[in-house]
Specification:
The structure is a single chain. By secondary structure, the chain is an alpha/beta fold. The chain has a five-stranded mixed sheet. A hairpin with a 2-residue loop joins strand 1 and strand 2. Helix 1 runs parallel beside helix 5. The longest helix is centred in the last third of the chain and has 23 residues. The structure holds zinc ion (ZN). The site of zinc ion has 6 residues, from helix 4.
Amino acid sequence: MPDSAPVPAPFPDLVSGDSASLDAAVLDAHFMRLALAQAGQAYAEGEVPVGAVVVKDGEVVAVGYNQPIGRHDPTAHAEIVALRAAAEKLGNYRLPGCALYVTLEPCAMCSGAMMHARLARVVYAASDLKTGVCGSVLDLFAHDVLNHHTDVLGGVLADEASAMLKGFFAERRAAARRNVAP
Ligand SMILES: [Zn+2]
């Protein structure tokens, strides 16, 4: 084996050509795809399809998907489930240096939890015009008094996340129509 054997790229399917350099956008898309897979799990269980992953130093620390119905828990949004699992795993109620990827713009509850956790970064996919507080309804992270730690980026794989949500709600409306049909 020659000394100059190339180091395998960690995500070869995402690397174009022979370049092994992964820029931030490629990594963001990679982790968002993992969050979308979590959203798919929520979908399969009849929950609004939202998924999240927590990442530290390029490694997935924890995952979560939306399951308030299944858990009988109004706080069981994907982000809270993933934050709890990450804090448990790392043995720390604060998660400095961690990034959270979520397929839908976070609500006020989840954004508050992220600030308490001192997350370094939150990356979301689709905007939520009804409950999103990263710019849609409000922008909580823009308040310097509230947010000292967390950078926010939206719109990563937004089309994929929106398509899954739209499909879910269309299916649910169709099912409701079937139930009221004579
Ligand atoms: Zn939430």
